Amino acid sequence: MPILQAQGLKKDYVLGGHTVSALAGVDFIVDQGEFVALMGPSGSGKSTLLHLIGGLDKPSDGEVTLAGQRLSILNDNQVTLMRRHNIGFIFQFFNLLPTLTAEENITLPLIIDGQNPRQHLDHINSLLQLVKLADRRHHKPDQLSGGEQQRVAIARALVTKPAIVLADELTGNLDSKTGAAIMDLLRQSCDELGQTIVVVTHDPRAATYADRVILLKDGLIAQHTRFGNITDRAQRLRIVMDAVEALEP
Ligand SMILES: Nc1ncnc2c1ncn2[C@@H]1O[C@H](COP(=O)(O)OP(=O)(O)OP(=O)(O)O)[C@@H](O)[C@H]1O
Ligand SMILES: [Mg+2]
To answer: Are 141 and 152 in contact (CB under 8 A)?
Structure first.
């Protein structure tokens, strides 16, 4: 069942009388429980696409349908609620609130949504277990390592049980070993919780944790790569590297 559908998505930016076509007509579908990686050269439109499917920005043309809801017919307030209920975001720079503990940061989306966190204690505890931070729950962000902060951000993205988790370069600020552990955690949330995930990444190794890779070039989808039943990570890495190489002129 498709949880996300992008149809004919275009995005033009006009700067000083000059138009930049960041997305030139993108179509794709993400099914429930799928884990998709978006790759492509710098400036190919990855972040723009993620912003459009997350309702953070509006397309110049085309339509995003998320959890059965067309975003174009929603007003700003409805889009905000849609985001709050259906989307978990993870960013490169973690974006945690510095004055709150790990547990409070994880709980925050529930509070913003007007829910009583006490009714979700079991869920919050299980998320702390999932991201292996049960013993760090009272730590503030500056008392946590970069990898630990990103694990808080993952638990925060999962806490509302969103229809989809969107992440932009979530390992971009971490060393490769920590980045691999973070991708492994997303893989686990996909396998164990059935979480649908779309990540933007520059890193072919990070992309090997997904079920398939969509390659963007000049604002268009240049290639779809599916791993199918290939589980060997080295073999997956070669497939991604070959696809990336084939893109180059
Ligand atoms: N707010 C903006 N105003 C004008 N042009 C923009 C804006 N945001 C992005 N662009 C342009 O749109 C194109 C796509 O940008 P985008 O940020 O989506 O690329 P990206 O694939 O995420 O690149 P990177 O890998 O460097 O993050 C680029 O040419 C960029 O300069
Ligand atoms: Mg980007």
So the answer is: yes
Q: Is the dihedral of CA 50, 55, 60, 64 positive or negative?
A: positive
- What pLDDT score does 99 carry? 97
Boundaries of domain holding 58: 2-247
Protein residue whose Cα sits closest to atom 8 of ligand 1 = 48
Report the predicted TM-score, pTM, of the whole model to 2 decimal places.
0.95
Counting the structural domains of the chain, the total is 1
Which runs of E-coded beta strand occur in the chain? 2-15, 18-31, 35-39, 61-66, 69-70, 87-90, 164-168, 197-200, 212-217, 220-226
* Percent of residues in the chain assigned helix, strand, coil, to nearest 5: 40, 25, 30
Under-50 pLDDT residues of the chain? none
Which residues form the pocket of ligand 1, taking CB atoms under 6 Å from any ligand atom?
13, 15, 20, 22, 40, 42-48
Supply the CATH number for residue 198's domain: 3.40.50.300
Distance from Cα 45 to the centre of ligand 1, integer Å: 6
Query: Taking Cα atoms as reference points, which of 79, 195, 199 lies closest to residue 150?
Result: 199
